[in-house]
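[User] At your convenience, examine this fold.
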Amino acid sequence: MNAMGWIVYFVFLIGLMYFIAIRPQKKEKKRMQELLASVAIGDSVLTSSGMYGVIIDMTDDTVIVEFGSNKNCRIPMRKDAIVQVEKPEL
């Protein structure tokens, strides 16, 4: 194979790596940033530990989540621990 063939092959591999590995990670990171920006008080959330709860208070980077029907179980956690959000039905 000549030098031009190796260069084309190398460029093809770099492009393939971009579309298989880097691009999906960027899309997922952007989706998570949009999700966390849309979080509001009263939203039902799923945390990264698998617990469901309702947001009762927020600051810039933390939320206080109430778990279960026992109103005494309130845990502060970082916003990035939220993996899924359900908006309350109006």
In short: Helices lie at 3-37.
